[in-house]
Write a structure and sequence with these properties.
It is a single chain. By secondary structure, the chain is of the alpha/beta class. The protein has 3 domains: 115 residues, Butyryl-CoA Dehydrogenase, subunit A, domain 3; 162 residues, Rossmann fold; 157 residues, Arc Repressor Mutant, subunit A (Orthogonal Bundle). The chain has 20 helices and 7 strands. Strands 2-3-4-1-5 form a 5-stranded parallel beta sheet, with helices on both faces. A two-stranded antiparallel sheet has the order 6-7. The longest helix is centred in the N-terminal third of the chain and has 36 residues. The chain is elongated, with a radius of gyration of 28 Å. The two termini are 56 Å apart. Bound molecules: adenosine-5'-triphosphate (ATP) and magnesium ion. Magnesium ion (MG) binds next to α8. Adenosine-5'-triphosphate binds next to α8, α14 and α20.
Length: 473
């Protein structure tokens, strides 16, 4: 929904004409950030007042550059003088008054549009900061799913809760990431929050054999705190818990926000959380991801992700191989790729891990190894692939990978990983390169702020398999 100068100029004129009636048309104002952020702590009935504030601000700015134009608008609309009277007051002909008035309204609309663009860009940057990936990965076979989620979220009606469901590594977070990237460019939602139900707090352990403890996962209180912070409701921050929740609810019920809750199934008590979210919703939408089914909840629109089709899987394999500049790719035949697909299925993460192995092993060796995994469950398939990748690592790389569950989900910096792994920065960079090539570690962030993290499935493998049973089963 791109707002044009023409449309806004018309809206400014109409609002000026109705200045003393205390009313305004809803569109386009109710979709503009410069207006809706003034509504954050008021009811939608305050829209005309918020619009007036925006116009008065813009008028004050116009006064700095063009006193005459601002004065004319004040006389005509705020003081309500007819054109003839305004013309007399300003020593102009009526004709000139109309011309100058039109130009002044357009200048005012242009200024508001600039502020709106700035506000949208700022908001987009803040929202994108919260995403797990900085550079969106190329995704295959998700267009229909993406459209389905976007169309669900565009409804101004119940159920207000939607969920993307599917097994680990199937692409839930990636799909929702793509949804957010699309919506952040629009004004459909006043703001977008991204909360991961998976918490990052671990207890440090001495030696690899000791158990790693995870602190309690997301609770309702933590969710409320995170939303208050991310959505910028600073005034609610200091309130006692019940008032804070009531305040948050009032705002989420007043204007449309979008709240992503990723990895819902890891929340303390996700069954109890769903009805609580339903309370906060409308017109705010909640978009959840979960490995567990939520089909039992009547008020949740569910979308299940299945394996990629054979064609999409092949595309993914080809893309991964070419972006990773793998040698020998020229000799890879369609049939080779089909063989990988036949064993690994359309599980994107499994396919990426296998391409990673091709750094060290030839494609035929990777396929050979995989034959033994044929017919196993997806869990076994992943376990099998991870053990293969693990077997390709140097001792130092294993040491580094094993500490990665201690690093925050948003990623750890080189120095932090160096401290945890006791591997110095220099060799550590080489090790990380090896792990990235194998698709075992993800890198994100800017050149000045590189952050390294592992996927949840990689983490599960490390915690459940490697740290419990340090030898291959
Ligand atoms: N459609 C796709 N095309 C290409 N790559 C994909 C696709 N879907 C997912 N991936 C890649 O597969 C990996 C796993 O995806 P993602 O993290 O979204 O899975 P998930 O379902 O959220 O898993 P989990 O339940 O463990 O959180 C990521 O590296 C992602 O980039
Ligand atoms: Mg995920």
């Amino acid at each position: 929904m791109k707002l044009t100068l023409e449309e806004l100029t018309r809206a400014v004129h109409t609002t000026f004409r109705r200045w003393h009636r205390g009313e305004t048309e809803a569109r386009p104002w109710n979709e503009m950030l410069v207006v809706t952020r003034r509504l954050a702590d008021r009811t939608p009935a305050a829209l005309p007042l918020a619009v007036k504030e925006v116009l008065l601000n813009a008028l004050a700015e116009l006064e700095q550059q063009a006193v005459g134009s601002a004065q004319l608008l004040r006389l005509r609309f705020l003081d309500g003088l007819p054109a003839t009277a305004a013309a007399n007051r300003m020593n102009l002909t009526e004709n000139v008054v109309y011309k100058q008035q039109a130009a002044a309204i357009e200048a005012l609309a242009a200024a508001i549009l600039r502020s709106e663009s700035e506000a949208r860009a700022e908001k987009a940057a803040r929202v994108l900061e919260r995403l797990e990936t900085k550079e969106p990965p190329r995704l295959f076979g998700i267009h229909d799913k993406l459209d389905q989620v976007l169309s669900t979220l565009s409804a101004h009606g119940p159920p207000w809760l939607a969920a993307v469901l599917g097994i680990g590594g199937i692409g839930k977070t990636s799909l929702v990431d793509a949804v957010v990237r699309r919506l952040v460019e629009t004004s459909q939602f006043v703001n977008i929050a991204w909360v991961s139900a998976r918490q990052d707090r671990f207890t440090f352990w001495n030696g690899l054999e000791e158990k790693v403890l995870r602190d309690a996962a997301l609770s309702m209180e933590e969710l409320v705190d995170t939303l208050v912070e991310q959505l910028g409701f600073l005034d609610l921050g200091q309130l006692p818990a019940t008032q804070k929740r009531a305040g948050l609810r009032a705002r989420l019920n007043a204007s449309p926000y979008l709240v992503i809750v990723d990895n819902l199934e890891t929340a303390v008590d996700y069954q109890a959380l769903v009805p609580e979210l339903q309370n906060l919703a409308n017109p705010t939408w909640f978009l959840l991801t979960s490995r567990h089914s939520l089909h039992d909840y009547p008020g949740v629109r569910c979308l299940s992700l299945d394996e990629l089709s054979e064609n999409d899987s092949l595309e993914l394999l080809r893309h991964e191989m070419s972006t990773r500049c793998l040698e020998g790719i020229a000799g890879v035949t369609e049939e080779d790729l089909r063989q990988v697909y036949r064993v690994a299925g359309g599980n994107p993460l499994a396919l990426k891990l296998l391409v990673g192995q091709m750094y060290t092993l030839s494609l035929s060796k990777v396929i050979d190894n995989l034959r033994q995994a044929r017919g196993r469950s997806v869990e076994d398939l992943y376990r099998y692939i991870y053990w293969q990748s693990w077997s390709l690592l140097t001792d130092q790389a294993r040491k580094v990978l094993a500490i990665m569950p201690l690093v925050a989900q948003s990623g750890g910096q080189l120095e932090h990983i160096a401290t945890l792994s006791e591997v110095e920065n220099g060799p550590l960079l080489d090790v990380l390169q090896q792990l990235i090539a194998l698709c075992l570690v993800n890198v994100r962030g800017s050149v000045d702020d590189r952050r390294y993290s592992v996927h949840r499935l990689t983490e599960t493998f490390l915690l459940n398999e490697v740290l419990k049973w340090p030898t291959m089963p």
